[in-house]
Every structure is written in structure tokens, then in C-alpha cells.
Amino acid sequence: MAEDSSYESILCVKPEVHVYRIPPRASNRGYRAADWKLDEPAWSGRMKITAKGKMAFIKLEDKNTGELFAQAPVDQYPGVAVEAVTDSSRYFVVRIDDGNGERKHGYSRQRL
Prior knowledge:
Strand order of the largest sheet: 4-3-2-1-7-6-5
Shape: globular
CATH class: Mainly Beta
Strand content: over 45%
CATH topology: PH-domain like
Structural class: mainly beta
């Protein structure tokens, strides 16, 4: 049976995540969550991880309307789209796309 690559499945939904603006990496050692303004998220909403074919997508959506804020296509982990931070297992770096092809770095964490 052939795989239907047009079918999108939902792998995970986190109802509350935060995106932060952070300074550029100071060294090649990696990003550190302690360097971010964790009390000042730039955006808060819902995260949905979906899969379509062999690609996964991290989607950041408004938790009330479902409007897409940004997304990150993920073809492998670890990779360019998602990086772990060096000082926490709760935070990670996501290279996000605003939906118009413009890339920016976003940083999100689930509230536990």
C-alpha cells in the first residue's frame, strides 16, 4: 500500500508555550536559556506538532483562534530547525518561519 503523503497527522499539542527574543549566540558552545528574558515572552500561544509524509512541522498558533503565528519544518533532529539549549531540558531553540518565508529564531518552552 502506498503512503499517502497528503495526509497530515497531529503528533502532539501543548496548550501553552512561550516564544522569546534572545541575543545572538555569544560562542559556538550553544544557546543558554539563562541569557534570555524569561519573564518577558514576545508571544504566548499553543504549539502543535504535525507530520505529513516524512516531514514534521512545529506550528505555533493563537490558542483561541488557531491562527498560525509561525512554523518550523523539521526534517531531522537534532538539526538546524531544532536545537537543545546547553543549560536546560525545558527550553529549546526553534528556527521559525512567519508563514511568508521569512525566518527568525524563536524559543519556546512548555509551561509545566
